[in-house]
């Protein structure tokens, strides 16, 4: 009221500019998307990202590209492998998010007092995982640098998650990264458990 200017400058910006600034991980762009827009695609985005991850893992299975005879019964087993990869990706994502919530609740319990605080943070984390959509072009344009591209995609998603936590809970940079590290430890624990059980992850 005192300066007679909008608090959120992105209200006046074109959606393409907002998207570019979100890709550049600018905190104010994240704040605008999370608090001043009515985006309600976090659930669909999460499912789509999990499908992309499951498809990538399914392609990386040793036997997924061998026999392509449509009459072969192995084809149906391969479909089950895809569903198994989707289930594993879902469990890993859940354990990652659970690790983040446990860390934040343990370090700053006053930040996550109500159910709406948890829901807002969950939405922010799911929306900030949009970088996983880059898995599609990485798989389509497969080349010698694909493993390096996948590492960059993972790092980009983690940076986006960090910004989402920071903006949602109004924290400094250190605590979101601590939560993400603990989430990664829990996620890798689940991967290790699956490998111990003899599943391809």
From TrEMBL:
It is found in: Endoplasmic reticulum membrane. Its main location: endoplasmic reticulum. It is a multi-pass membrane protein. Keywords: Endoplasmic reticulum, Lipid metabolism, Lipid transport, Membrane, Transmembrane, Transmembrane helix, Transport. GO terms for cellular component: cortical endoplasmic reticulum; endoplasmic reticulum membrane; Golgi apparatus. It comes from the Eukaryota. The chain crosses the membrane at residues 85-106, 118-139, 145-162, 174-194. The keyword Membrane applies. GO terms for biological process: intracellular sterol transport; regulation of plasma membrane sterol distribution; sphingolipid metabolic process; sterol metabolic process. InterPro entries: Arv1 (IPR007290). The keyword Transit peptide does not apply. Mediator of sterol homeostasis involved in sterol uptake, trafficking and distribution into membranes. Belongs to the ARV1 family. This is Protein ARV. It comes from Nipponia nippon.
